[in-house]
Amino acid sequence: MEKEIVVIIGGPGSGKTSLINELAKRGYICYPEISRQVTLEARRQGIEQLFLEKPLLFSELLLEGRKKQHSQAQQETVPVVFLDRGIPDVLAYMHYIGDAYPAFFDEACKNHRYTKIFFLPPWEEIYTPDEERYENFEQAKLIADHLAETYTNYGYNLIEVPKETLDNRILFILEHLS
């Protein structure tokens, strides 16, 4: 059986972290979203909003972190690994803010492939801003559009997860694995 490297994507506040946390509680290997770690490390170095102040540097750090996660996921000895966001997320966010990026960003997307992509659509009822989430719901919807377009452009078939209870969303995802 081929290992599945499964990515859960969606705009800010769509429930990705809750799903990842619940999958981890159920014993699955899950890799967390790394942008919060990058943001907190930048704050420790005195840069309040690295994504806003130095978007290319922020994106390069995310790209490297996500490439490392992809490599680590391949080394796992379990049949499925879940990731909170993937490499194309970096490009989707760059498209969202209108920034250009070097060709190696595109190469990373082509050279690091995932098995399945689960897309969480924008869901206003569960959206809540927090310390690291500066986008409003309208911006979150635009980001979700960029994510869907970017992953589709890299040849992925997005599996849209229904707006259901956390348990039902987990069941949906597990039923759609190979």
TrEMBL record:
Pfam families: AAA_28. It comes from the Bacteria. InterPro entries: NadR/Ttd14_AAA_dom, P-loop_NTPase. This is ATPase. Gene3D superfamilies: P-loop containing nucleotide triphosphate hydrolases (3.40.50.300). It comes from Flavobacterium beibuense F44-8. Residues 6-169 form the NadR/Ttd14 AAA domain.
